[in-house]
Design brief:
With 298 residues, the chain is an alpha/beta fold. The chain has helices at 5-15, 24-36, 60-63, 67-79, 88-94, 104-121, 139-151, 170-173, 182-187, 217-221, 224-236, 254-259, 276-284; strands spanning 127-132, 157-162, 198-199, 205-208, 240-245, 264-270, 291-297. The relative contact order is 0.16.
Amino acid sequence: MNDQNSKTGSLKDSEKGQSVVSGDSSRQEDNYWLRNKDELNKDGVPYSEWDDSRMLVPSSLELGPGAVDRYVISKQIVRMQEPRRLTADDMDERRIIYPESSNRALVNRFRDLRTKLLEASGGNNFTIVVSATNRGAGASFVALNLAAAFAFDQSKTAVVIDCNLREPTLHSTLDIMPETGLTDFLDDPDYDIARILYPTGIPRLRLIPAGSRRETPSEFFTSFRMKQFLQAVRRRYPDRFIVLDTAPITESPDARILSELCDYAMLVVPHGRVTPNQVEQAALAFNPQKFVGTVING
């Protein structure tokens, strides 16, 4: 996937948790988001929930069977608020694909990957765990760009969830300063899921960051509340694709545990840095009924 060695360095920087973009303008935009996250609209709905607020819809008699659901979904997607937009330069610097990118080879590889997964799912939305054989293999890069590829479709949405609690990086790559995240939601049964959904600056793509607690991640992921959480995210938008970025499967049980709660699991392998036996052992750790294949990155 990573076909330009000259850009590998910046990718690795982002995966180490260092922001790849800095500057006063981006900080101002982040502050804008943080300042306005709890702002209420004219109906008294918090800003973070505007995209889910109620709406009037035509009846099924007017539009035909199933049309009401499609109408509601399309209207919800149109109403999704984007307090900031990443520019093409921002996306290039972060190594995130977008439809007009000049790096056609990279865009097409992720489009192909998206198409293969849609074929496997019969065209339905799904949840997928992305893990790696080892640190630095590029699982976060693949997870984020796979989610971005699903968000290309204007009738679909995607959310990427940072489940690598030990070394979360997605918020840094996207230059977001989250106040709360996944572990905060799992800790508090009264927590509203809208508080941990962050716009990414990429249309129709949301991020759920790792959260403030990082100890004993496996206990978070085996909880009943984690199962409830995934069900709630799926219900929020029926046409949403959910991508979970996890720690390397050879270093923790997190990816295997989470894959049992998801539809599919995918393994990212760094080109030339692991042996065939290591790849085989990593792949065997997944439930074979959910394992959809390996992506070679590098």
